[in-house]
Amino acid sequence: MQILLVRHAQPVIEHNPDGPADPGLSNLGLRQASRLNAWLAHEPIDLVVTSPKRRAIETVSGVIALPVTHQVHDAFDEVDRLSNWYYPTEILASDGGEYWEGILRRDWDAIGWDSPEAFRQRVIDGWQALVAARPAERVVLGCHGGVVRQIVSHVLGLEGYPRLDISYASITRVEVDAKGNASMQSLNETGHIDGTRETFTDRLDHRPH
């Protein structure tokens, strides 16, 4: 089984005083998602699993539109799942104001974040359940940068929160063997944002030709 961890494309800023922010994609994010979906159209995807967040679902909407099953798993929501604010990562420090100050103070309850420990436990529990279920041969998991980092950290046996650059609309591939052992196949693929392709060589087919 191969699982493609897809970080969402660029979202818009959103403030929702009545509940958790759930922004859609920006104009740039829509273009990033279009490039991603055009790339993945050449791969035999069997299942799409996403976070419940709009930005994650919109990013892989082209794959969801194919005749494949789509499942929403709360386990793969981002650490900020209950926050009233959302700022794109690249402007969070400069524009986030009191929200950013709350992050620096680690005032998780006040800003609507899970604690680092609770976040990691939730994501890894969801990941292990997905791996154990082995629901399909090639799975797209549409999620978030923090979720991808936690899964990569777990697969590589790293402690803590790794400092990894996970770009918008990037693909990180994890292969899981028949015994449930996971190994990294790629990290932060972004070539599809600028490139195109017309064919696909199935890396799951190891037979000589």
Automatic annotation (TrEMBL):
<dbReference type="GO" id="GO:0016791">
    <property type="term" value="F:phosphatase activity"/>
</dbReference>
<dbReference type="GO" id="GO:0005737">
    <property type="term" value="C:cytoplasm"/>
</dbReference>
<dbReference type="InterPro" id="IPR050275">
    <property type="entry name" value="PGM_Phosphatase"/>
</dbReference>
<protein>
    <submittedName>
        <fullName>Unannotated protein</fullName>
    </submittedName>
</protein>
<dbReference type="Pfam" id="PF00300">
    <property type="entry name" value="His_Phos_1"/>
</dbReference>
<feature type="region of interest" description="Disordered">
    <location>
        <begin position="186"/>
        <end position="209"/>
    </location>
</feature>
<dbReference type="InterPro" id="IPR013078">
    <property type="entry name" value="His_Pase_superF_clade-1"/>
</dbReference>
<dbReference type="InterPro" id="IPR029033">
    <property type="entry name" value="His_PPase_superfam"/>
</dbReference>
<feature type="compositionally biased region" description="Basic and acidic residues">
    <location>
        <begin position="191"/>
        <end position="209"/>
    </location>
</feature>
